[in-house]
Amino acid sequence: MSWREAMLGTFLATIGRGRWWLLALAGFLVRGGILLLLPPVVIPPTPADLALISSPALLGAGLQSPTPLFVTVIVVVILGLTAVILGSGLLGAWLDAVLIEAAARDDELEGLAATGPIPINAGLTLRLVAHIPTFVAVGLGYFALGDAAYAELSSPQPGLPLVVRILLRAPLATGAIVVAWLAGEAWGGLAVRRLGRHGSMRAALVGGLRDLLRPPAVVTLVVTNLVVGLLVVALWLAAGRAFDRLWPLLVDGAPAGTLLVALGLLVATWAAGLWLLAIGLAWRSAAWTAEALRRG
Question: CA 81, 86, 91, 95 torsion: positive or negative?
């Protein structure tokens, strides 16, 4: 099966597999994708809120000389995030394994090699190892992003959401983290798919990295993430406009009928956007399965 045949075959197979859509969307959301969908419906903090958050009593002199309270908050946040990452990672690994095995056994994708069961713990371990470059990029960009956050909280700029404004203040650190994240996702995904065939974690990691460096995998990485990215942006724009129309009505106390129509528009926009995103995510997963297994 050639690369073009694999991409077309996975797309045609995905269109008629509603179960794949649900699995792909659920896996995307529990593994952190939900954070990408929140900006359109998040109210930016007011200057008073920012002044309270950036109070010297909490932050001290910044990251160079933090207060004990700020250090405590950071430790609690890190521990909480670690627990959430592990829990959501296990659930996401299980959803990924179910989706991968379903695509590998699909009758419309006859040119793919067979794959066996994928152990959930091993699958999560492979993905975490593949994201070591991401953790390194985050560590190297910590001070740049921290200084950017402190500068934004101290002197907020209007317009874009707070998180976006912070990221734009440190473009090099942000770009490095995004590239490392996308590469880690692709490497981990290929390694997990190889694990179902060979059963060796070391062989899966080495083989996944070797597969990732091949031109077809690079093209798959660019094309699939471009499609998913465009769908996320479309959802942002549509849901953002619907929310912008709903929020003033809630603040001004509009009649119940008007509120109901505006709320229905927002819900319908989200539902349509999530439906299209689910199809795109399912196709991306099937495309990576085909890329990992099509050579037999």
Answer: positive
Q: Which of 44, 45, 37 shows the shortest CA–CA distance to 236?
A: 37
Q: Helical H runs in 106-212?
A: 120-130, 132-140, 142-154, 162-169, 171-198, 201-212
- Count CB neighbours of 257 within 10 A: 8
Assign residue 156 a region (left: φ > 0; alpha: ψ between -120 and 50; beta: otherwise).
Answer: beta
Both tokens assigned to 162: 């707070």
- If one counts the domains in the chain, the total is 1
Burial 132-169 (b: 16+ CB within 10 A, else e): ebbeebbeebeebbbbbbbbbbeebeeeebbeebbbeb
pLDDT confidence of residue 21: 94
Residue 263 structural domain = 3-293
10-residue averages of pLDDT along the chain (296 residues) = 83 90 92 81 62 58 62 82 86 89 79 72 90 90 81 71 75 89 91 82 90 91 93 88 83 82 89 93 91 73
- Cβ atoms of 108 and 144 closer than 8 Å: no
What's the confidence (pLDDT) of residue 113? 61
Cα 53 to Cα 75: distance, rounded to the nearest angstrom:
17
Q: Is 10 left (phi over 0), alpha (psi -120 to 50) or beta?
A: alpha
Q: What CA–CA distance (Å, rounded) separates 7 from 94?
A: 24
Q: At what angle do helices 142-154 and 171-198 cross, to 10 degrees?
A: 130
Taking the model in full, what pTM does it have?
A: 0.81
